[in-house]
Structure formats: C-alpha cells, structure tokens
C-alpha cells in the first residue's frame, strides 16, 4: 500500500529540505548528469512492480555509492525488501545516505535529493501503467518524455510581514503575537470629566486605523479592550465643584452676598492660581478667565435680578467653584454625586466616537466595576514584597522593584526616573499632601479617602484606587497575564505606562507583561499641545461643525500615527482636497464602467502600462503598511494610482478610444477596499443575507432610471438647438442645475459624448450648488466693479482734459511753488529752480494736454470746456 507521497505506508521517505535541495552541501542545483545516457533496469514490468508494492511495507533505503575505478548507475527493486539502490562511481568521492521514517523514528544516511524524486517518478510511472521494460532501451521513447521533469518553485521575495514601532525598543520590530493570529490589545481610554477634544480624536482615530488595518488587511483576530476611567482626582474635584455651583445658584442668596463671594473668589483665584503659575501658556489662559469673570461681575452688578444667571455661574465656575470647594467640599459624602458626572461624559464620549466612525471596543471596562479585583491585585503585590501600606494608603516600592535582579523600573522612559514633577502630576490634584511614602518616587496603588471623596471598603480601610493600578487590573481581568499590544497617547508613557508595567510585573513575578507598546503622537494647535489645562482645545463637536468625520480621518491618514501633528486650516485643506480627488475619481470611473456596458475590449499597450503602474503602487502600499502601518506613504501611492489613472482616462478620451472597463473596475475596487480598511468608507456590518440580489446597492437600482432621463434630456437638447428653442434649453438646464441635485444626482454635459450621470450625497450637491451660485455672484460683482473702474477712469480722464493748460500744474502745489505766465512751473515745492531736463519733460506734458484740451473743445463746437470760445 502506498502513502499519499508515493512511498510504502509505514516507511515514508521524508526529505529533510524545503523544495528539492534543502541542506544540500552545494548551493548549485545538483542536476541529473548525462540523463539521456543513463540506463534503467528493464527486467521488471509495471504489473509486477504494483503487485510487489502491495506486500508488507519495510524501510526503503536510497543509496548512492561512487568509486574511483568505474562509473556506472543502476536502480534495482527488491520485491521482498522493497529496496531501491542507486549507485554511481566517480573519482574522489564516496558517500551514502538513507532517510527513513519508521515507527516514529528518523534514520539519516547521506543521499542525493534527486534520487528520492527519481523513486517517486518510477512509482508514479508504475501506477500509471508505464512499462519499465522499455525504459532506457532502443525501443523505449526519449527518457525525458518518460520521467516527469523536475519542477522548480518560483523564488519568493522576502516579506517579513508587519513591523510595529515598539516604544520599548524605540524602533520598528517584527510583529509576532503570542498565539498565531490572535492579538490581545488593551488601550487606555478617556478620563470622563469633560467634553472630548481633538487631542482625544488624535489618539482614538489613530488606534482605530491601526486596529482596522491589522484586522481587515493583515487578517489578525484582534480582541480590543478599552477602559473608562470613572474614578479619578479630576472627576472628584469637578463633580464636587459642579454640585456646589448648582446648589449655590439655587440657594437664593442676596445680591450683596453673591457680589461679595464673587469678588473674594476672584481675589483668591488671582493670588493662588495666577500668581503661582510658571507656565506662560497656562497663565495666559487663567488671565483670560479672570478677565471674563470681572466683566461678568460688572454686568451682574448693573442687572436688576438678584439671582445669578446660569451664564454667570458658568463663567465663574472655576474661581467660584474652587472658592466654594475649599469651604464646603468636605461635606459631600454621597457617592452618587461622583457617579453622575462621569456617566454623563462617558455617554458624550461614545457619541463623539460614533460621529467620528471609530469602532467601539470589543470589551469596555469601567474602574468602578473592578474595585474588588483591584484590592485583590494590590494584596498580591504586597505579598510579593513590592508594595507597603502607610496610613490607610498603599504605595508601590519603586526602589525595591528597581533593585531586584529580575526587574527594571521605567522601562519605557528610563531617563524620566526621578522626575518628581511628572510623578506628582500622575498622582492627581487631590494627592499632593500624601504621607507615609518611603521614597518620593513611590506611587499610590490605593488612596485613603478624605472627607468629600468617594470611598470603598478595603483591607487598609475606606479608600479608592490609584490611577495606574486601574489599567493593570482591568487588562489582566479580561485578557490574562500577558498582552500583545498596549496602546495610549505619547504623554502616558511616564509615569502611567511605566508604573503599569512595574506593578504588573510585580504581580505576575515576570519580566515581560506587554510585548508591544504603541503610542500615538500629540496633536498641537499653533505649535502647543492641545489640552484642557491650557484652555486651547477644540472639542470634537466643534470640529465636526467645520469638517466631516471623513475629512478629519483623512487628515490623520495623511500623517504618521506616532508623530506630532499641528491642527490647522491648512492641514485640513489638504485633507479636503484629497477627499475631493477620491470622490471625483470614483464618480468618473463609475460613469465610464456603466457606459461601457458588458464590453470586453482587447488590452492595449496603454492598458497594460497602467496595469503595471497600478501593481507597482499596490506593492508599495503593502510595503508601507508592513512598515509600522505607514499610512502617509500608502496614501501618497493611492494618490499616484489615481493620478496615473486620470491621465490614462484623459489620453484615451483624447484619442476617442475606450478606457478598459475591467482595468478601471479592478483599480477602483482596490481603492474602495483600502478606504474601507482605513475607515474612510463605512463597512457593511449588517447581519445575515441581504434580501434580493441587489437590494443593498442603491446605485444599481436607481441609475437605469436616471440614465434614461439623462438620455431623453440629451435628445431634447439636441432638437432644441437645431430649432433654436432657447426656452426649452433653459428647462433642460433647470433639470440639471435645480431638479436633479435635490435628488442627489449630478449630471455633467460633455461635448460630443453622452452626459455623465453621478450619484452624490444630496447635501454635498446642495453645497456645491451654493458654492457655484456664490462664485457666479462674486464673478458678477467683480465684473461690475471693473466696469465701474473703467467708467470712473474714463470720467477722470475727461475731467482732466477739461482743465485749461494754464491750470495743469498750478494745482500740484505739493510739487511746484512758482509758475510763469503760461502756467509752466519754474520752481519746485522747496523753492529750487526747475532744471532744464525736468522743464523739458514738463513742456512735453503741457503740449500733450494742450492738444487734448483743444480736441475736446473742437468736439464741443469750438467752445472751450470752461465756456470760452477758442
């Protein structure tokens, strides 16, 4: 019985190479020498061989021998032993090899790889009914026809696959998930206490693009987890302030008290906040707040109403809020107050992400839901010797951890070790008076709650989680003891992510918790980092009133996900132009493909040339995406594909030749797919089968009807032109310019060709129509302006001609001071005599003007313009 590889079952010959010649001692292919002169034994018929092969299987050695004295080759088949022997004599060598797998054991003997192939060919020949008796004899055919030729697999270019810029090494590393194609990915989510701004969009759109590329292009099975930080010092402070402001506004205080409190709040804000702020940008933002509050207070003093307005309280929220918090913050004990604020802003965040077409996380976690897991996690770190309790709080011992042979603190940013300012900021605004730390660099895993702060039970007393521990616990609870990817904004590297790494490694007693750390770059505005503390942020909602989600995503795609990007109208303008390029390309190609119908023209040299350019750009796009998802280079090559295709379309049209529809279809479908991968075009995420063959394709349903209308209109226009029916042509224009755009149809008349029909978003067409009308109006206004200027110049020239020659220079007192009887200047405005050269030029001007003056007088019946006769 033969195995599927053609060897006896139980004795399968296993080559120890990839392709025919792996592990060969020579890099050259060991071709069969003198193959036409070699002889094969002819004393066994194929039927006999097949009968023999059905007997019990035994190992089949393949032997090659050479000797100095002779050169011969023979292959013999021993029926009982199933032995195939190959021998050849040649000078200066002697070797033999057998490769056999029997009962799970490998036996290796030197052998030429081609012999195994020869054996397989012989077996295949026997099974096909070939006759060995004629092989190698005079009556046999050419051996090259009887033995199947060797096949060489094409050489594959080296493709190392995806590389990602790893913050651990600060360079691009080959991406190797722990478990095949499955990827465990955790991203630090927002701290929800205020509106999301474009700095947040920078991070979450960037990671959405990376996630889509890894899932939809590289086919990784990504488990994407993101957290919501709903327990944090900023949230606690903001929740208290909001509650106190609302209570203050509803309390019905007298005008005198409101004014006194507002003035005291401003004084405190100026003394404690503005005066102590060293950052000029932050101080400028605070000065702006101070100015607005003073103006609001002056308006309130003049107003008749005693109760402060909602707008007044909103303007005064920071100074007055801090003022009230210092007095009454400690009285707030209801945890519901601290839950209300983050729930509101979390929902707002999700709405913003949906508006930006950012895919939701596969798993969303909230800190408030994992407090029991957090306390258990901290207990184990204490048990492992890397944390300690002090006055109801628990701190991580950074020095002990760093001194351990198995660990290293601040792996991501080692140069930040000892940066107390960054560490203090990471501990939170309510943790400045922390006591009990052994070292200044130690950070809080658990914070004892002070009056006016939410609290949960723990082995160390009532308290709340520290910031850094939250992500370690939630990632572990959902994804296990090791992550493939951890992502976040670049500003989180230290101390947040470095502290996450330290406490997780301390918990698991390992030296590697995350394999790849990805950090998105900053988004700046006017060169400054966009942040709430600087008051220079643009909310996502504000941005979406100016630009579409697609345009914002294109802006990020046109730049590296990990570099700093300055948000400005100029940068957005580039994205808008790219969008228009894509849009017009797709509309043009769809119209050409539709017009071509089911034609299958022969491929021309132009078609093949474009195809080759397209394939070359596709390869560059693949290489760019492998290069740490370099979307900027990928988009540059997409632009090249569009440019080459547009030139091709124009050249074919100029030659009155058809652009190949199959080629256009291939290119446009690829670009559509890439735009879906990048999230620029929405993916179809409906569940199950669609109803009917084309129910999901609106264009295929509508276009035949619109095309019929367009064709009919074209016939009417043609007839109207022949009979010069201007009113009918105007009706045709109204259909194109007014009726169809309201239905989402753009109709483009083309001289000598059928009209182009393009389905476009109705709102977009309305904007285009408004822009066209505005441009026409601006053109009309400009035309009127130029017409007026020409008329004014003509009138000015005529007025100048009416001036008597004797008065021509006398009015120019800024240039001349004395004149002769004829009115010619003799001295300049400084009293200096006019030079002869200048006087000559003035004489010429005088004579020219005098001639025009007399000409005008002649036109008026020889009456001088001043009423005198000539």
UniProtKB/TrEMBL annotation:
The lineage of its organism: Eukaryota, Metazoa, Ecdysozoa, Tardigrada, Eutardigrada. Its EC number is 6.1.1.16. Signal peptide: none annotated. It comes from Hypsibius exemplaris. GO terms for cellular component: cytoplasm. Pfam families: tRNA-synt_1e (PF01406). Residues 176-574 form the tRNA synthetases class I catalytic domain. Residues 66-83, 817-836 have a biased composition (Basic and acidic residues). Residues 86-101 have a biased composition (Polar residues). Residues 1-112, 812-836 are annotated as: Disordered. Keywords: Aminoacyl-tRNA synthetase, ATP-binding, Coiled coil, Ligase, Metal-binding, Nucleotide-binding, Protein biosynthesis, Zinc. This is Cysteine--tRNA ligase, cytoplasmic. GO terms for biological process: cysteinyl-tRNA aminoacylation. Residues 756-803 form a coiled coil. Gene3D superfamilies: Cysteine-tRNA ligase, C-terminal anti-codon recognition domain, HUPs.
